[in-house]
């Protein structure tokens, strides 16, 4: 969770708090560095562009947003999608694309989709190296955040500051040190659609990402996989 929060916070800063907000050109796990205390730092964004300027790059296959298939451009919403994929990798212990796996399990999203519709299968989705030793409720809600980041409509995805807000809340809840409900307010943002979930007005930040009551701890279904995945080529490592 600490790594996810650090990476999300880095993207949120680039998108919303930097003096000249920028888009990370090719977000993927190899762009996240860890220090000795597992603090996450983003690196290698030399191709970053201002957030209002169209940014055309070669995205890493497996992390590219569906709209990239049609336009070839990276946006802040595309970064959110890529973060959702990375968050799924953290939860499942699997790669976005892994050709060493059986054919039906090589694409992480394709493998996940049928299992997300059955809550009883959730334990099967988590990283087996955890050996079941994880807070189930927190894991469900983190999976929900990831699926919100993967919404097909770019405008329906949360801001990275909203993702940070939710992950921090879950982290505090997980360690039993939950502070005041407003302790992680995202504050003002220069993003045009900032605070679209009205986090400051929620009685609990958890509700800002929840569906119906019966879905409270159940991850949302993932959108269909992007069409024509062969259109996106891999970037150099």
TrEMBL record:
SUPFAM superfamilies: Protein kinase-like (PK-like) (SSF56112). Its main location: membrane. Residues 220-229 have a biased composition (Pro residues). It comes from the Eukaryota. The keyword Coiled coil does not apply. GO terms for molecular function: ATP binding; protein serine/threonine kinase activity. It is found in: Cell membrane. The keyword Hydrolase does not apply. It is a lipid-anchor. Pfam families: Pkinase (PF00069). Residues 1-170 form the Protein kinase domain. Residues 217-237 are annotated as: Disordered. Keywords: Kinase, Lipoprotein, Membrane, Serine/threonine-protein kinase, Transferase. One of its GO terms (cellular component) is plasma membrane. InterPro entries: Kinase-like_dom_sf, Prot_kinase_dom. This is Protein kinase domain-containing protein.
């Amino acid at each position: 969770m600490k790594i996810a929060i650090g990476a999300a916070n880095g993207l949120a800063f680039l998108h919303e708090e930097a003096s000249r907000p920028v888009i990370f050109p090719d977000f993927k796990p190899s762009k996240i560095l860890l220090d000795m205390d597992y603090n996450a730092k983003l690196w290698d964004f030399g191709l970053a562009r201002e957030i209002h300027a169209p940014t055309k790059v070669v995205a890493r296959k497996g992390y590219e947003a569906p709209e990239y298939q049609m336009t070839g451009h990276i946006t802040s919403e595309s970064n959110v999608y890529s973060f959702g994929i990375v968050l799924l990798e953290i939860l499942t212990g699997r790669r976005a694309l892994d050709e060493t796996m059986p054919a039906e399990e090589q694409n992480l999203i394709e493998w996940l989709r049928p299992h997300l519709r059955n809550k009883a299968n959730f334990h099967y989705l988590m990283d087996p190296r955890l050996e079941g030793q994880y807070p189930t409720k927190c894991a469900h809600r983190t999976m929900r955040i990831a699926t919100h980041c993967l919404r097909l409509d770019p405008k329906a995805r949360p801001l990275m500051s909203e993702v940070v807000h939710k992950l921090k809340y879950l982290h505090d809840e997980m360690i039993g040190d939950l502070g005041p409900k407003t302790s992680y307010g995202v504050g003002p943002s220069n993003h045009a659609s900032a605070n679209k979930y009205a986090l400051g007005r929620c009685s609990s930040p958890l509700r800002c990402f929840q569906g119906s009551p019966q879905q409270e701890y159940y991850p949302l279904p993932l959108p269909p996989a992007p069409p024509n995945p062969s259109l996106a080529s891999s970037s150099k490592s």
